[in-house]
Amino acid sequence: MPSQAANYYRPQTPEMAVELLANLQGAAVIGGATLALGKLGGGRPSHLIDLCDAGLDRIGWRGHHLSIGATTTMRDLRRHPELSAPGLAAIMAMAGHFEPLPVAAQATLGGNLCTGVGSLVAPLLLYEAHAVLLGPDGERHAPIAPLRLHPGEIILSVELEPGSPMARSGCQSLRRTPVGPALVTLAALVDGDQLRLAVSGIEAPARRLRDLEGRWDRRSVAQWAESIAHVVRPIDDARGSADYRRAMVGVLAERLLKELLPTELREVH
Amino acid sequence: MRWSAEVDGRLVECDVPGNASLAEALRGGAENTAVKVACGEGICGACSCLVAGERVHGCIYPAFRAYGQVIQTAASFADGPVARALVEAGGVQCGFCTPGMVVAVHSLSTDVPATEAGIRHALAGNLCRCTGYAGLVAGAVAGLQRLRAGEP
Ligand SMILES: Cc1cc2nc3c(=O)[nH]c(=O)nc-3n(C[C@H](O)[C@H](O)[C@H](O)COP(=O)(O)OP(=O)(O)OC[C@H]3O[C@@H](n4cnc5c(N)ncnc54)[C@H](O)[C@@H]3O)c2cc1C
Ligand code: FES
Ligand code: FES
Q: What does the alpha-carbon distance between residue B103 and residue B118 come to, in Å, rounded to a whole number?
């Protein structure tokens, strides 16, 4: 590498990245740069602070939280043994959307959260995920939706609570193009008779549907799908009307719940 | 900034802005037009090249992440069996996607079956606006088979 004298920097620690960010006008950190360099990302930053060597690609336990480094790529997420449990399948499903494109080996978790409409937000919300940030004032924890970075802050990692080994989860999404943000993403986790739900795309910001969550009662799958479609507050934009989004979340809900429910419950309904 | 890499077997040194993409470094700095830029946002695969053997979309890959690496563009494979098979199968019309397709086929690991389904799945990130894909996919399958059979 040439000396770091011009406008590409590859800091070896997160602290160095934060310092560079504070001192360089027009600089931005990059994870995979799949948005920052392409036309999709809007204006290109004048200085790139590449986080690829900053040691932020680790996945491991921090107390009872599973910590996923911000520069973990979609491909690494898919391949990591800690993430192979059925309870984490919702994350795997969304990371899998990037395959077999080469972008899967480049797109990072941190960059995905920064877009605000990234595929991973809804699944991560199922596990009470929060972001760990580092900035000029030190480290802090912040919600991932909406994720609000203070000036000069970077994402170090995302921490989540994977839930019981018996849990099963999944995620369904609907998009108009392979790259654009999904119109609707619905993620669900079933743990015994407990149900958790999260949506993104359909609402801004993404959120858990906590009003509906709780015990899986004797409603049929179709009735649950109807309830989900009823409680969402769909946005209306060029990609899809609110009515269309509401109808589609019902369709996705029915598919997802059929896939996740234990057989005995599925047969009752 | 001074940028350098081994491109298609040749050591290249040139001045490239630090915030450039690899495609910009190769086309602008290294004058290598085997890398095409169509969408410029990582969708179409026209800019596909290999960095240390891994396929990347050059338009969204930071040039300086590839600093000092071995880079292969379609120029490395121009006379190979894949390029020939694509032409023979009618898989080339305007030819703009062809360099990216050739690189993509060369990047496929042995667990990708050399079948129509295997190729359609593995090449999902490479778009062609002209051929309708039938000849292109047939050419890619034949090219991969010939590559694996060791045809020069
Ligand atoms: C072909 C293709 C397919 C795609 N498919 C999908 C898809 O299915 N789902 C989806 O959600 N997206 C998709 N995308 C969009 C994008 O690739 C992903 O959202 C990706 O995860 C973004 O991450 P990145 O590391 O490349 O971001 P970058 O381009 O590196 O950064 C994007 C933004 O985030 C900021 N940033 C990055 N990392 C950090 C950090 N650690 N701390 C603070 N700020 C940071 C950057 O400054 C920048 O503003 C696709 C893109 C392409 C080209
Ligand atoms: S030009 Fe790079 S993917 Fe289209
Ligand atoms: S031959 Fe014209 S884009 Fe493929």
A: 16
Judged by CB atoms closer than 8 Å, whether chains meet at B19 and A45 is answered as yes
Pick among A37, A99, A103, A175 to test the B interface (most B CBs inside 10 A)? A37
Contact B42, A38 (CB under 8 A): yes
Note the ipTM here. 0.95
User: Touching check for B59 and chain A: CB below 8 Å?
Assistant: yes
Q: Which residues line ligand 1 (CB under 6 A)?
A: A 28-36, 38, 41, 51, 70, 97-98, 101, 103, 107-108, 110-112, 114-115, 118-119, 154-155, 178-179; B 41-43, 60
B66: distance to nearest CA of chain A, Å?
A: 10
Read off the pTM: 0.95
Q: Does A44 touch chain B (CB under 8 A)?
A: yes
10 Å CB burial of residue B129 (0-12, 13-18, 19+) is: exposed
Q: What is the pLDDT along chain A (269 residues), one digit of tens a residue?
A: 544 447 999 999 999 999 999 999 999 999 999 999 986 656 789 999 999 999 999 999 999 999 999 999 999 999 999 999 999 999 999 999 998 899 999 999 999 999 988 999 999 999 999 999 999 999 999 999 999 999 999 999 999 999 888 999 999 999 887 677 899 999 999 988 889 999 999 888 999 999 999 877 778 899 999 999 999 999 999 889 999 999 999 999 999 999 998 665 555 54
Spatial CB neighbours of B30, under 8 Å, sequence gap ≥ 6: B5, B7, B12, B14
- To which residue do tokens 């920097």 refer? A9
Domains and CATH numbers, chain A: 1-55 (3.30.43.10), 168-266 (3.30.390.50)
Residue pair A21/A152 in contact by the 8 Å Cβ criterion: yes
Q: And the tokens for B47? A: 């800019």
Q: How many CB pairs under 8 A join A and B?
A: 88
**Tokens describing residue A49:** 């602070």
Looking at beta carbons, which residues of chain B come within 8 Å of A2? 1-3, 67
